[in-house]
Amino acid sequence: MKIEIRADSVTIEGYVNAVERPSKPLLSRFGEFIEKICAGAFGRALERNKDVRIFLNHDPKRDLGGTGTGELELEEDNIGLHARATITDPEVIKDARNGDLVGWSFGFEDRAVDITQDGETGLPFRLVKDLNLYEVSILNREKTPAYNGTLVNVRADEDGKTINIGDSVEPEIIDVIDETAKEIVEEIKTDLRAEAETVTPEAETPAEAKEDIKSYDNSRYKNIIAELKTMRDSVKN
Question: Taking the model in full, what pTM does it have?
Answer without folding.
Answer: 0.70
